[in-house]
Design a protein that fits this description.
Length: 113
């Protein structure tokens, strides 16, 4: 686990905001050429934990810079591997799935995904 990641995600949920992968890596002071890969690997582990406990996916709080406010493709691929959505996913379905995750995270609810 990356130090500070879970607290940073809680802060995002409380503030009802998302951060880009780069912003989150900077906030966590992740250095190196593969800093985004390190971050996404840990976010995928959190997705597994969240799916097992029927919580909204905290990884939804981290989005791509050029993805119209959506997480990167790997987020949706992982969600599909966890049985939470289809992949490939249409742009409309991706927006709906992501919006549902954010709604539950911002509300602080534990709902079945």
């Amino acid at each position: 686990m990356l130090p500070g990641l879970e607290e940073a995600l809680k802060d995002c949920a409380r503030q009802r905001i998302t951060l880009t992968y780069g912003q989150m890596a900077e906030r966590l002071e992740i250095d190196g050429p593969r800093r985004i890969a390190k971050l996404t690997s840990v976010l995928e582990t959190l997705m597994e934990q969240d799916a097992k406990t029927l919580q909204p996916l905290r990884a939804a709080l981290v989005v791509g810079r050029g993805t119209d406010g959506l997480p990167a493709r790997g987020f949706f691929q992982k969600a599909q591997a966890l049985g939470l959505c289809e992949y490939p996913i249409s742009p409309t379905r991706a927006q709906e799935f992501h919006a549902r995750q954010l709604k539950d995270l911002f509300a602080g609810t534990r709902t079945q995904i």
